[in-house]
Queue: 3 jobs
Job 1
Amino acid sequence: MTDLTLRTAVPDDAPALAAFAERVFRDTFGPHNRPEDMDAYCATAYAVDHVRHELTDRAYHTLLAVAGGAFAGYAQLRTAPPPPCVVGPAPLELKRLYVDHRWHGGGVARALIDRAIAIAEQRGACTLYLSVWRHNQRAIAFYAKHGFVAVGTSEFTLGTDVQIDPVMVRPLAAGPARPSPSAADAHG
């Protein structure tokens, strides 16, 4: 894929990103969930004003993958309190990583995860965590291939359906300066 470009989303991207994100979310999860739950979730999560707020909120960093002049995927990092099962230092959430089905297998997801990891490290994170739908074996395998391991679960509410999803973490190489381990830490 020669024309793939990764760039940080800006507030003017909100209408196009909201439409793209909702379409990809519905394509991924719609066949497996009740339509009324999908509608309720999407009405809030992908409303243009909500997406614009995320693009202006310093707690978020949204990365777009653009190919052929159109969105091929996106990733979103978020600073937020982690679920209790995430115990690593300086955690940062990989809140979303979606690729349009037309680009599956084309390297878009790999480019997004690699850049998201680099951005997380630049932001001082030492631990990257995410929640993934328990029935999305393709995504779980992708994250495991990129160094994430399951550490517990968290709730995700889709409309009125409370789902329990795996939480996965990956330690990061960079981050804020860390003190040297003590002798006790070094020997277990």
Note: The two ends are 45 Å apart (CA to CA).
Job 2
Amino acid sequence: MILVSNSPRRQEILKNAGFDFKVVSSNVKEEYPQNLAIEKIPEYLAEQKAFSVVKDYKDEILIAADTIVVVKNTILGKPKNDIEAIEMLRKLSGRKHRVISGACVVKGDDIIKFSDETTVYFKDLSDDEIMYYVENFKPFDKAGAYGIQEWIGMIGIEKIQGSYYNVVGLPIQKLYKILMNIRRVK
């Protein structure tokens, strides 16, 4: 199995779920057609990542994923700097938002795309809390400028509806079922 991801969080989730795999990086730009429905963007990006390496790993099971954060129908990507991270966290403060993780599994000619959605509720974050988090955790590799498993998640998230692991970045419950079915078919 090959995980097409630079994310240490996705690697940890897949490892903790009991899978043996190799990690391969993808240099796909996270761009998508502007007319694509928001809910389909993570699946589209995951498929692009998987297809970027498929020719080199034709006999392997490929897994790729992507996660977006959506607040009021606006997608919050990965912040480029402190200012963007602070702005994103202010947009999330005191509000609920959606986290959508999409995945693509490729095995030979079979392509399975799916996604999962979790609703996350943030408390009102003070500017001091936001600044502390950005300065100490540098959330520049995270959609929406936060990691639920980090300090900001511990003190700022009041509740979630859906899968915790989906917010971390991998819809493992759905992925596990798919991988178990692929292994049975082998």
Note: Residues 172-185 form the longest helix (14 residues).
Job 3
Amino acid sequence: MTNALHAEVAVRIGLLDLDVVLDVGPGEAVSVVGPNGAGKTTLLRAIAGLQPIDRGRVVVDGVDITATAIERRRIGVVFQDHVLFPHLSALDNVAFGPRSTGVRRGDARRRAREWLARVGLDDHGDHRPDQLSGGQSQRVALARALATEPRLLLLDEPLAALDASTRTDTRRALRRDLAASGVARVLVTHDPVDAAALADRIVVLEAGRVVQQGAPADIAARPRSRYVADLVGVNLLRGTGQAGHLVLDGGAALVVPDADAGDVLAVVHPRSVSLFRERPEGTPRNVWQGTITSVDDEGDRVRVDVAGAVPIVAEVTPAAVRDLALAPGAAVWVSVKATEIAAYPA
């Protein structure tokens, strides 16, 4: 089966050296994530035809469109700030999409009404952008892109401009609308929740290269870089497997029964890290001393950074913070069960 998108993109801009191959299957949703400067938006712009490429090609539905004019690529784009025309109604903003591809005015407005209804805004057609909420504006921009009947949809941080109070509801609506469209799509985001909720597969870019890709659950279970581990909120350790132990690069060793010989990565979820003010009783096999460097309250949980032979982040309850008097500079004992450490080849 022909991929909806096959892109080979090599672009050098300033310090960015982007060299990526990206495939998206028919109807598939792919999230592209990465740190600032990794090349995410440049990749999206190159696929859309907004950024010339130095080397490579862009193939959509089996057709090479590398040299095709932007307006003839049949690629829908939804930008971060939605870019609605302030002097046009929601209906006319959506109709502008198909009109720009040569559809006659009457047909464009009919198509616009259909798409506004699909995104739940059929009663907002006469509203101008300043009369719409952030979430409504985002859905109008999506309807405008989909009304062009694109073969591929590109979304650049579509939820970034929304406040926290509307983000969850808009994410849910966007997921529904995108799935119903059936269009293959590429989403650029910095938010791990958006990436996991809106995509079937995640592609991680770092310094212009793909460093990892896979289903959201697989990415979270086996991160391959510090950035990915931080993105999904887990501890990533690297060392050498030796007879059931993981010897870290700094020299410390942990008991990890499934650590194979050789270069090994290991994941520890912060929830699996226990903190004590005195050495814990019993015979836990992975215990070490550390010093708290930061305490971040995240509502129903608190993330505690601990420096030491094995630098690690623990996730505890607010009650534990009070009971143990956890604060920057405090000395603590750290314990992790060997069964709570997942190791895999680096």
Note: The chain has nine helices and 20 strands.
